[in-house]
Amino acid sequence: MSILPQSLFSRRELLKKSAVGFGNLALLSMLNDEAQASKSKDPLAPKEPHFTPRAKRVIFLFMKGGPSHMDTFDYKPQLQKYDGKPLPFDKPRVQFAPTGNLLKSPWKFKQYGESGIHVSELFPNVAECVDDLCIINSLHGTNAAHGGALLKLHTGSDAFVRPSMGSWVTYGLGTENQNLPGFITICPTLAHGGVKNWSSAFLPAPYQGTPLGNAAVAAKQAQIEYIKNDFLTRKIQRKQVDFLNDLNRMHQEETGPNQILNDRIGSFELAFRMQEEVPEIQDISGETEATMKMYGLDEEQTADFGRQCLMARRFAERGVRFIQVSHSDQKVQWDQHGNLLEGHGKNAKEVDKPIAGLLKDLKQRGLLKDTLVIWGGEFGRTPTAQGKNGRDHNPEGFTMWLAGGGVKSGIKYGATDEFGYYAAKDKMHIHDFHATLLHLLGMDHEKLTYRYAGRDFRLTDVAGHVAHGILA
Questions:
Q1: Which of 102-116, 252-266, 280-294, 415-429 has the weakest average pLDDT?
Q2: What 3-state class would DSSP assign to 186?
Q3: Burial of 109 by CB count in 10 Å (0-12 exposed, 13-18 middle, 19+ buried)?
Q4: What are the pLDDT digits (tens) for 28-62?
Q5: Angstrom distance (rounded) from CA 72 to CA 142
Q6: DSSP assignment, residue 380?
Q7: CA distance 150 to 365
Q8: Cβ-based neighbour number of residue 83 at 10 Å
Q9: Bridging pattern class, strands 109-112 and 183-186
Q10: Where on the tree of life does the source sit, at the highest rank (predicted)?
């Protein structure tokens, strides 16, 4: 015979029926306060920054695999001089793989612009924009593997699931267009962390990155999933969404506020509005022929990444807060452990013209002044050879560059050693990079926090210093 009572009370029913219902009264009061707060606050509404921002939005040009800084934007004449010689100091205790002697760059460097900054012949078009660049030659990280390094760059942690920097930015500032997500990632990689690199993790769902295709899909075919409905009219869809929202709100009246359910209601509403706006943004037929050529859409080798960069501009000018563009494929694009000359040569040709086109286009439209453009990968490469003609992963010192958005232009900040192995001057850790990014957007990285699991989390964890030397 069962010893359980014939009927079991839920916790809510117990509060109603015990102690003359006083527990239920207290619960209803708390739920009402929470409900009012949730109704009055749109999670994606524009928010005031902590102080006057230099930038309003971010375009992150992510070169997956780790471009070699000594072959692109970190000129090392000593590396050319001592080619084939042993590295005259110790290599890191922890290395991804063994490497041999020094390997010179197979590309020539030339000074460009009024700044006279050396740029590799790999990037002749970007070199024309060098006076708009703030080249940081002293980045360093903590992980020599792609998976950990990608997560470190994107989320600030290489060991735990944490919100991505795009999610933190959207959480801190909201978005300027309520018909679009605050964070778009164009053709992102599904490897080495995949969705975790644009995830909102424990932040509310509205701050999650919205993928437009993925790295295995050509940019021309890249779509946000279910952006079109070929079976129902918008009028019927509107009725469906309204009915679903009514059911969810009825459920909340009985059970109390639920953040996850609120987020789901919001996502249905946003998805409905996106069905009109996103296809219009992706329709580039109204762009001039000159603009198309500037991005390289008229050439087979540059058309794919050129379209991604053009999409980034179109999303940026419509108020999306954080846009990521990934140059990646199923071969870990910039990861040349061998065949450096062939691999980096091919990669640079695919992105050089589109990136220069984006910078010039933003500038002529007046968007560059308050748009922060970031270029870089998860780490750099070793100045020592892997095999005969490759370079291994190197998180000890590498290069990223910024443009627009309140940074000084036509400068080099920091430096690696004379061969390019270690960050040596004005070192900038990934946490420092994140702190500086948030500062440019008007946010104090120590104040942008979210309470979860009993503690306050932030993008920079318990570290990070703003690099004031690059601020305009």
A1: 252-266
A2: strand
A3: buried
A4: 555 554 444 444 468 889 999 999 999 999 999 99
A5: 22
A6: E
A7: 32
A8: 14
A9: unpaired
A10: Bacteria
Q: Evaluate whether 175 touches 182 at the Cβ level (below 8 Å).
A: yes
Alpha helices in 318-466 (DSSP H): 340-364, 430-440
Helical H segments across 111-198, by residue range: 124-127, 146-155, 165-173
Token output for 101 = 């002697």
Place of tokens 């030397």: 469
pLDDT at residue 264 in the model: 72
Question: How far apart (Å, rounded) are the C-alpha atoms in residues 185 and 58?
Answer: 11
Helix, strand or coil, per DSSP, at residue 185: strand
Token output for 140:
């360093």
Cα–Cα distance for residue pair 234/223, rounded to 1 Å: 19
Contacts of 450 (CB under 8 A, 6+ apart): 163, 171, 202, 203, 456, 457, 458
Q: Cα separation of 33 and 456, whole Å? A: 23
Q: How many CA atoms lie within 13 A of 262 on its CB side?
A: 19
465, burial (CB in 10 Å: exposed 0-12, middle 13-18, buried 19+): middle
Compute the distance between CA of residue 189 and CA of residue 193 in angstroms, rounded to an integer: 9
pLDDT tens per residue, range 260-311? 777 777 777 777 777 778 889 999 999 999 999 999 999 999 999 999 999 9
Strand 109-112 to strand 428-429: parallel, antiparallel, or no bridges (unpaired)?
Answer: unpaired
Which is it for the CA torsion 460, 209, 144, 87, positive or negative? Answer: negative
> Within 13 Å and on the Cβ side, how many CA atoms surround 365?
16
Q: How many other CB atoms sit within 10 Å of the CB of residue 430? A: 28
In angstroms, the CA 279 to CA 227 distance is 8
Q: How far apart are CA 191 and CA 283, in angstroms?
A: 29
Which tokens in the block code for residue 129? 């924009």
Side-chain half-sphere CA neighbours of 430 within 13 A: 25
Question: Residues in the chain, how many?
Answer: 472
SS3 354: helix
**Short-list 419, 430, 349, 352, CA closest to 385:** 419
